[in-house]
Specification:
Layout: H1 9-14, H2 18-37, H3 42-71, H4 75-106, H5 109-115, H6 117-126, H7 134-162, H8 166-196, H9 201-241, H10 249-282
C-alpha cells in the first residue's frame, strides 16, 4: 500500500505534526476518488476511503500501545506513552476535519448536496437549540452526554471487534463536524458579502477562525474521549488476539484499559458541559 508506507507509529509519535498533513491528504484523496468513481454515494464512500487509508497506521499504533502495556509496569509512564499516541492521532483527526471543512467551503453549491448529503442530514437531525432555561439546559446536557456515551460505546465496540474499527466512527464524526464548520463559514461569508458588498481578506479569515473556534471548544475534548475509548477497546482486542489473557500481564492490561475509559468519560462530561453552558454564551 502506497499510503501505508508514508508513516509508522514510532515515527508518528516523534513527529505528530506530520499526521495533520497526512490526514488532510488522505481525506482529500478520498473525496476526489469518491467523486470520480462513486459520485452518487460520495458522502459515504469518501469516509470509507479515508478510513481505509488510515487503518494501517491506526492498527499498528494500537498494537504498539498493547505491547507497551505488557512491557511497562509503571502506570504513570504507561499513560504518558498512551498520551503520545493520542496526540498524533488527534493531529490525524484535525487534518481530516480541516480537509472536509476546506472542501465544503470551496466546492461549488451544486456539488455540496452530493459530497455532504448524509452529513447534512445528520446535522439537521442532531441540531439542538439550547435556551436559557436552567431545566432545559440540564435536560440538553443529559441528552448530549448520553448521546456522546452511545457514540463512545460504538467506538469501543468497533475497536474491540475490528481492532482499529474506531477510526470509522471518528472519521464519520470528522466529516460531520467538517460539514457543520464549513456550513457556518459559508453562511457567515455570505452575510458579510451582502453587508459590505465584498468579502475582504481580513473578514474571510475572521469568519474561518470563528467557525473553527465555535466547534472546537466542545469538539476537541469530545474527540479526545473517543480516541481514549477506541484505544482501550483496541488494546483489549489485540491482547485477546495475542492470547495475553493467559498471562500475568493481563490484569495490568485490564487496569490500564479501565483508566483509559475513566479518562474518556471525564472528557465526555467536560465536552457536554462546554457545549451546553459555554458555547451558547460565546456564539
Amino acid at each position: 500500500m502506497v499510503l501505508e508506507s508514508l508513516l509508522n507509529p514510532l515515527k508518528a509519535e516523534k513527529n505528530p505534526g506530520e499526521m495533520f498533513f497526512i490526514g488532510f491528504i488522505y481525506s482529500s484523496i478520498g473525496i476526489l476518488l469518491s467523486l470520480w468513481i462513486f459520485k452518487d454515494q460520495a458522502s459515504l464512500i469518501m469516509v470509507f476511503l479515508t478510513v481505509m487509508a488510515c487503518l494501517p497506521i491506526v492498527f499498528n499504533t494500537i498494537k504498539l500501545e498493547e505491547k507497551k502495556d505488557v512491557e511497562i509496569k509503571n502506570e504513570r509512564i504507561l499513560l504518558k506513552e498512551h498520551n503520545r499516541a493520542i496526540v498524533f492521532l488527534m493531529f490525524l483527526f484535525f487534518g481530516i476535519t480541516l480537509s472536509f471543512v476546506t472542501w465544503y467551503v470551496f466546492l461549488p453549491p451544486d456539488m455540496l448536496g452530493i459530497v455532504f448529503d448524509k452529513q447534512t442530514t445528520t446535522i439537521q437531525a442532531i441540531n439542538n437549540n439550547v435556551s436559557g432555561n436552567a431545566f432545559q439546559e440540564f435536560s440538553a446536557f443529559t441528552k448530549i452526554l448520553l448521546n456522546n456515551i452511545k457514540v463512545l460505546s460504538f467506538a469501543i465496540l468497533f475497536a474491540f471487534i475490528y481492532g482499529a474499527g474506531a477510526i470509522f466512527i471518528l472519521t464519520w464524526n470528522a466529516s460531520v463536524i467538517g460539514a457543520a464548520m464549513g456550513n457556518f463559514i459559508r453562511s457567515q461569508l455570505g452575510e458579510a458579502a451582502t453587508s459590505i458588498g465584498l468579502v475582504k481578506f481580513s473578514t474571510y479569515f475572521g469568519v474561518v477562525s470563528l467557525g473553527l473556534l465555535r466547534y472546537s471548544i466542545h469538539g476537541i475534548p469530545e474527540i479526545i474521549a473517543y480516541f481514549y475509548g477506541g484505544l482501550a477497546g483496541g488494546i483489549i482486542s489485540v491482547a485477546i488476539i495475542k492470547k495475553h489473557f493467559k498471562t500475568e500481564s493481563f490484569s495490568r492490561i485490564l487496569f490500564d484499559v479501565s483508566e483509559l475509559l475513566i479518562i474518556s468519560l471525564s472528557f465526555l462530561v467536560a465536552a457536554a458541559f462546554l457545549e451546553v453552558y459555554i458555547t451558547p454564551l460565546l456564539f
